[in-house]
Design brief:
The complex is a heterodimer of chains A (108) and B (116). With 108 residues, chain A is mainly beta. Chain A is built from no helices and eleven strands. In chain A, strands 2, 4, 5, 9, 10 and 11 form a six-stranded mixed sheet that branches. In chain B, strands 2, 4, 5, 6, 9, 10 and 11 form a seven-stranded mixed sheet that branches. Chain B has a four-stranded antiparallel sheet with strand order 1-3-8-7, with no helix packed on it. In chain B, a hairpin with a 2-residue loop joins strand 5 and strand 6. The interface between A and B is medium-sized, with 24 and 27 residues.
Chain lengths: 108, 116
């Protein structure tokens, strides 16, 4: 079958580090993406991993292990503005399939 | 204008109405997508157009009819919808074949549809 699993909610405090995990199951896989969506806004692209390893973009990093069908998004030095929903999505060759999203709440 | 723009932003329609959602991308991309986002559910891929040809129709009911007249415009024609079709409809574009592949989609703000 095809599926993506990520936690539905995560809460953290300002300045902390949070990791959002994503596991997937699919017959065709080209890479894993992460998107951020604020309430009422459009999803915006954060990162893409086609190969195993860590990709770093400022305060955000994303990791992929193809052998484990697993990835995560790491957010460092959390800020209040990071409160949003975060989606992992796998590239199935010409289309992106999204997970249910993780709602991150950052508290003061 | 830049990016991906969708109109209307909000739409209320009865089950017997016919309406259309419009999407325009100003990024020079060669692929466009329709996604449906319902509360507490993942973004569901509905249609994919690559180089103006429909390459994906994800088992979407025929009451949704897409149209892609050129690489910059995408429409979603709606008729005899059901209340459960109420959702946020998101349009996106991407450049296939680039280094980023389909890992990076550019989304519009969405059209919030309510079916009464």
């Amino acid at each position: 079958g095809q599926s993506l699993e990520q936690p539905s909610e995560v809460t953290a405090v300002e300045g902390a580090i949070v990791q959002i995990n994503c596991t997937y199951q699919t017959s065709g896989f080209y890479g894993l993406s992460w998107y951020q969506q604020h309430d009422g806004g459009a999803p915006t692209f954060l990162s893409y991993n086609a190969l195993d390893g860590l990709e770093e973009t400022g305060r955000f990093s994303s990791f992929l292990s193809r052998s484990d069908s697993y990835g995560y998004l790491l957010l460092q030095e959390l800020q209040m503005k990071d409160s949003a929903s975060y989606f992992c999505a796998y590239n199935q060759g010409g289309k992106l399939i999204f997970g249910q999203g993780t709602e991150l709440s950052v508290k003061p | 204008e830049t990016g991906v723009t969708q109109t209307p932003r909000h739409l209320v329609m009865g089950m017997t109405n016919k309406k259309s959602l419009k999407c325009e991308q100003h990024l020079g991309h060669n692929a466009m997508y329709w996604y449906k986002q319902s509360a507490k559910k993942p973004l569901e891929l509905m249609f994919v157009y690559s180089l103006e040809e429909r390459v994906e129709n994800n088992s979407v009911p025929s009451r949704f009819s897409p149209e892609c007249p050129n690489s910059s415009h995408l429409f979603l024609h709606l008729h005899t919808l059901q209340p459960e079709d109420s959702a946020l409809y998101l349009c996106a574009s991407s450049q296939e074949g680039s280094a980023g592949g389909v890992g990076e989609l550019f989304f519009g703000e969405g059209s919030r549809l309510t079916v009464l």
